[in-house]
Write a structure and sequence with these properties.
Elements lengths: L5 H11 L6 E8 L5 E7 L9 E7 L7 H19 L6 E6 L10 H7 L15 E5 L4 H4 L3 H12 L3 E10 L8 E5 L2 E2 L12 E2 H4 L2 E12 L15 E2 L4 H21 L3 H8 L3
Parallel strand pairs: 4-5, 4-6, 6-10
Antiparallel strand pairs: 1-2, 2-3, 3-7, 7-10, 8-9, 10-11
Helix pairs in contact: 2-7, 3-7, 7-8
Length: 274
């Protein structure tokens, strides 16, 4: 089973070893509209997960209505504020990881388009100091995403780095429906056997938060593939462009609200759109 989702790895460990204490569930809560939140703490590294706190919201009804999406935005924003309260938010750098030319990997770039950036504005009074970057991928630039970001970090010296990236799931019902936050790390390409340099508080020398949504899945997790060459086949949703756009809006609104302490309508007015 190949996945980057805390809840799926937790279930896998329970099945394989009931006594494993690597991951502990701290909170399991159901909200209206079918939204579910789980909060975990990883005590020792397991699979692609480093030590730290993880929150995941699963909302299979998220695409049913704008009302549902607004509801998720409010809950995500509230949870992000909890993570932010344990960091130094004086100067924030938001990083959109992935490849903007591939829909299933464009989540980070789409989020960055709707982030309220303020670092260039003098005499800020009500908004936080926020900058943003999309480093793209090694195959397009010839430079590791981490190397680009670390150079920007060294130059601008943010106190907090927030990354956004597409993830891999082991259940097709999770695609586009699970929103995961952690303060541990992110390994670009970690879910699809293409691991790059890790992003975390130690490697970046700053507080760290990562946000991700699963948008890809291995085909052999839900169907029998006889050809060995197909065992590494990664697939996504047929309406992935719409799913990634909605998911990115949800994350960008949640981030803007949490970071700048704004309401939904405040953010809408800043961005002049939903």
């Amino acid at each position: 089973m190949k996945t980057e989702l805390i809840s799926e790895i937790f279930e896998k460990l329970k099945i394989e070893n009931a006594n494993d204490s690597s991951i502990k569930i701290v909170e399991d809560k159901n909200y209206k509209f079918g939204l579910k939140k789980e909060h975990f703490f990883v005590h020792k590294k397991v699979d692609n997960l480093d030590v730290g706190a993880y929150s995941i919201f699963n909302f299979e009804n998220v695409f049913e209505s704008v009302e549902n999406q607004k509801y998720l935005i409010e809950k995500l924003s509230t949870e992000l504020k909890k993570f932010l309260s344990k960091t130094n938010t004086k100067k924030i750098l938001i990083v959109g990881l992935g490849n903007r030319h591939i829909s299933a990997d464009s989540l980070g770039a789409k989020v960055i388009k709707n982030i309220i950036v303020t670092r260039h504005i003098k005499n800020l009074k009500t908004l936080k100091n926020v900058s943003a970057i999309c480093p793209s991928v090694l195959g397009l630039t010839g430079i590791e995403s981490y190397d680009i970001v670390s150079s920007v970090v060294n130059e601008t010296k943010p106190t907090l780095v927030i990354t956004i990236d597409s993830l891999c799931a082991s259940s097709e019902t999770r695609l586009g429906c699970s929103f995961q936050i952690n303060n541990a790390s992110i390994i670009p390409g970690g879910g699809v056997n293409n691991k790059r340099k890790v992003f975390n508080s130690k490697t970046l020398n700053a507080d760290f938060i990562s946000i991700g949504v699963p948008l890809v899945i291995y085909a052999n997790t839900f169907c029998n593939l006889t050809k060995r060459s197909l065992n590494n086949l990664v697939v996504t949703l047929k309406d992935i462009e719409e799913v990634s756009s909605i998911s990115s809006n949800i994350i960008s609104y949640s981030l803007n609200m949490a970071i700048h302490n704004l309401t939904f309508n405040d953010v809408k007015n800043y961005l002049n759109k939903l």
